[in-house]
Model the fold of this input.
Amino acid sequence: MAKINKNCSSFSINKNFYIAFLSVVLLLQTQVVQSANIVTKDKTVNEMQKNGVYSITGFGAIGDGTTLCTNAIQSAIDMCTKNGGGKVIFPPGTYLSGTIIIKNNVELHFEHNATLLASTKHKDFPLQPLPKYRSHKDQLGGFYALVYAESAENIALTGNGTIDGQGKLQKPRENPKAGDIDGRPRNILLISCKNIRINGLHIRNSGVWNQHYLNCEDVIIDKISVYNHSNRNNDGIDIDGCRRVVLANSIFDSDDDGITLKSTGAAACEDIVISNCVVSSFCNAIKAGTESSGGFRNISISNCVVKPSKSKEEPIFHTPKIGITGLSLMIVDGGTLDGITVNNLTINGTMAPIYIRLGNRARKYTKGIPEPAVGKVRNIAISNVVAHNAGSWGSSITGIPGFPVENISLNNIQLFTSGGVKQADFNTTVKEDEKGYPQPSGWGNLPSYGLYIRHAKGVSVTNLMLGTTTPDWRVPIVAEDVIGLQIKDCRLSEGNPERPFIKGKQIRQFTIEKPLGWSGTDLFLFDKE
Done:
């Protein structure tokens, strides 16, 4: 039998005991540190919440772009409003979500590199209840949206993060209504809300309209960036039947209309300021309409640039890539457009730089109401506009028979178009089309390359410069059925001496001065009637 070394055995036992003892100590230390970290984290979260700051990650949101975070984000919002309001923070990360509902006194703040990413599953966007305020766009019985609120007050979306609607992947619902009423979600939809602030965000890729502010009051939208080329009806922003709105210092690039004022319900869009914006659109850059039920009043548009889109994709509606119009002001579903000033506007491109239109589509905004009467367009002052590289369609100011547009002044306007239209490339008679969709694409090349005026009363045009890149067969100006027309201090960069400066019929009470440098034999040519 071998002999056992008692000293060696004792050392081995002591060594094993020592190792076991150290392991227990280290385990206890780790647990203590982890517990301390949890306590510290909980303490920090509690302190943040006491200060009105609620991070969505503290409610379980994971910014990996694949984990659905709707409930976590909504829990943070609910806790915030329950405790009197504050900030709900989106830390850096990509947070997949369905519909979230903003509530009173809540600011959603997106930190740099934080993205709210829309889910592409229909089940994540439940139909919101039919709002108290009725609109032509609620025909599905409510709305679908990523960020939604109704009748909330003191709300905000701020920061340097992004809201991405994944628009290319958003599909219509089953049995949809036509056009833009098919269940695709808006990125932002706020209805009948008050005291709204939108600041600094990048908002893009919506399923349908990007931002829709409906029947809201006291709205400030500042320093946002919008890129929206992912689906049909991709407007940049729709301010709809709102009061006291300031939109400033922002950039828009959209497949559909860029900055759009609408009135899809009974409320007028009034007391609106739009300034210091850069707008690109494959359709209409800055527009009032088409829906006009409540009308537009007291609108100021200033210091804006319209330019071609940077998108390399083809327009979804097959519109000209340079855009349809730079400025569109219209009434077609009843309502009154009154008190509009436009100042300091640069338009690079578009087929028709200026489009002012009264029509009579007369669409009801909801069932069971009378058909709207013919609306009114009046008291518009447009000044200091430079339009260059424009297409060949021409600018226009038009009413309908028996309902003239009234009191329109254009001062210090430059309209330089591509020209090159031959005698066979335009119609000398322009269809009324008062029931049609109000857009100059329905007319194409007008019989004048500069300005077409019809069914109007009280039109003043001063300091107008007209020119074409390529000689054009058409006359510079056509006027038909106009009472009170004043045209003075005009200049043509080039003109066909064999064509009159202005041609028209049924013109009463007019003053037309000879343009500077005019060498033609006929200043104006009016029909005998």
User: Anything to note?
Assistant: The chain is about 10% helix and 45% strand. The mean pLDDT is 92. The two ends are 139 Å apart (CA to CA). The helical segments are 6-50, 70-82.
